[in-house]
Amino acid sequence: MTEIATFGAGCFWGVETKFRMIPGVVDAAVGYSNGHTANPTYKDVCTDETGHAEVVQVIFDPEKVSYEKLLEGF
Fold first, then answer.
1. What's this model's pTM, rounded to 2 decimal places?
2. Which residue in 4, 11, 29, 46 is the catalytic one?
């Protein structure tokens, strides 16, 4: 059984890579969250006019890594 956690970051590329290195992380994906622009592009979000934050969604196995350890890694 896996769980999902989403982390907001100023720039998600490095954050995604670091999460993927943590044992127990099954997958990590980047995207945008909580803005008012539908289907924004990276360029749109970089304008700071969409209301979106860059986020990383992490799928993890809680039997192998705790949410607290993910927070420490973040």
1. 0.83
2. 11
